[in-house]
């Protein structure tokens, strides 16, 4: 761990006003750093900032985070604040988020400078496969991370509280696994421990027949394809289609 002395990972959470590329209406952050013994800890470096998405917030998203147009009317735009939060002064070894692909849609290399990402959802699937569910809030109450202040982590679905909760999962993951391991896990699709839906829901992939697994590698969901392919590979079948190619592409 010596090479990561004084290391820092910044956890990011975004709330958005719609699905456009600039629709961020709030960003929250929470830092996780190594102490003098090389153990990862939560710091007091956290915060949140309203962002003006440049257009009205949709009712669908307001119903989730309860951020109103009036809250963001005088806020800066995303392009004005993103880089300063995503590339803070001092050392930054990685950015992190729960289901980081969402944050990465908005936190592009233009703003991050190419800083690598950790996805705590993907990492939790591999580190704690025995857990029944893997959402940020379910992990919070299934795991009850040490030191997580209940009130600081509320309300849910707001940027700073969600980043604060995610940071506790990240701290524990980093104290169990190396930073390099989490970055490697995050670079691949999610390896689901069980079938998520359908007649085989809840079954481990090792319980499925080769025929059923062959069907799953044609699923539209990349995580399902990757999980089925991984089990087939484990069984010695290494000549399957790449998981990045949806088999239904001819219908799209």
From TrEMBL:
GO MF: exonuclease activity; nucleic acid binding
Entries under SMART domains matching the protein: EXOIII
Alphabetical list of SUPFAM superfamilies matching this protein: Ribonuclease H-like (SSF53098)
Domain named Exonuclease: residues: 8-179
UniProt record, GO biological process: DNA metabolic process
Gene3D superfamilies linked to this entry: Ribonuclease H-like superfamily/Ribonuclease H
Span list, region Disordered: 232-252
Protein known as: DNA polymerase III subunit epsilon
